[in-house]
Structure formats: C-alpha cells, structure tokens
Amino acid sequence: RKMHINILAVVAAAVAGFVVGGLWYSPVLFVKAWKTELGIDSNVQGSMKAMVPQLVGCFLLCLLQAGTFAMFLGKQTPMLGAAYGLIAGVCWVAAALGTTYLFEGKSFRLFLINGGYNAVIFTLYGLILSLWP
Predict the structure, then answer these.
(1) Closest CA to 17 of 131, 123, 133
(2) How far apart are CA 111 and CA 81, in angstroms?
C-alpha cells in the first residue's frame, strides 16, 4: 500500500508546534513555573543569539515529530486526527516523560508543564495533518 504524506501539512504542523512551544515556555504561559521546577533563576534571561542552536534543533525535532506522526496517522477526519494526536501526546509522549520523571525524582508540576505541551502539540499535529489532502 502506497503511503501519501503531504509535506506542506507536515511543515505547517511543525511550525504550529514550534509556535506553541514559544508561547508555552514564555512569560505568557509557563516559563516562570518551568524555570522554578528546574531550579533556574526566573530573572535570568538568555540571549536570543545564544538560543539559535536550540531553536533550530527544536524546529527540526518538530518536523521529525510531525512527519513521523503523519506516517502513523494516515488519512483521518479532523476530529479523529485531533483525537489520535491527543492520545499520542498523552499516552506515548507524556507517559514516557512521566516514567523518566518518576525515576529522576522530577516534580509532578514539571511533568504537567512538559507533558501538557506535548499533548497540545500532538493534538495540533493530528488536526493539521487531517485538514490537508
């Protein structure tokens, strides 16, 4: 069976995940709580220039996530695509983080922040990938 993956949909989904990450880990949403849970001084601001390698890496990983998820997702209705994305984000990604966090002694609050981000972006991946032909 031939698999069809819409590259534009994958790029759009990756951009959406990247943008949500920018908001999620910003003063608009959870950066203060996230830094507190990691023991980072929330008053210390990193320079954007120093973050370029991290941002490029983050976008490439979003592309990898969206592209690979597209292979699993196949053609779905938008509601089912979003539901499958939510399930993947919670049951695959967040659950994997949770297992690691249990043994690393990380907080439940950090789990909710990072796991929540993955649940949201995978829901978006599923929705966006399902909207494109």
Answers:
(1) 123
(2) 24
